[in-house]
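S2.1 Query sequence (Redox-regulated ATPase YchF)
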Amino acid sequence: MSLSVGIVGLPNVGKSTTFNALLKRKQAAASNFPFCTIDPNVGVVNVPDERLEQLARVSKSKKIVPTAIEFLDIAGLVAGAHKGEGLGNKFLSHIREVDAIIEVVRNFQNPDITHVAGKISPEDDIATINLELIMADLQAAENRLNKLVKDAKSGDKKLITEKQVLEKVKTELEQERPVRDMQFTDEEKQAIKPYNFLTAKPILYLINVDEKNQGIQSPIGNWIPKQTPHIIINAQIESEIAELPES
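Output structure tokens follow.
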């Protein structure tokens, strides 16, 4: 069983470069214009596990099938994506299908690589992407609630529970609070599971830096929601290292 991880972010932040580094090969094109990626690039990486090798030796198994992670390099989102801006609806649908999200955030200067907002502001970029994901979830919740208002009158317990939990989700999303930060009972979790809410998915922030600010930690903690994991890498360097032949 593999885990699918979507790599998201604004255009020109290093998503495809990160994707190539993870796969240790140049599979995705990285260009200096928005929407270089339209359909997701997909790659699978096997995860080595010494325990599997030990079990194989004990059981004398000739075949080892490691856990795999499927990475999807998803096209850049822009402000207004939930309204369809920049093919946003299509790209958001790709995110809905993954199990977890890596959000690539640009924190490097390069005059040859344009930024869609015309300036480098990691804090603004994070806010833009997070708002688009929240608004897409809010839209999905509202659309379903409009139908449930009538259907729940039948007295069906499942529909009533679904309506109640969606009203709860809607209220929290309107406060720009992601679904992953909300508390649900087991019954409520089952009721909203089919919606695949974008902001319910685990997220890792990947801060893409250059050599000048590679060691800088602050004020990164101020940009990212509290208790959310993040890593700092130079995706370009990592991609170049990944392409080197193994000795």
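The longest strand covers residues 100-107. The chain has one domain: 3-242.
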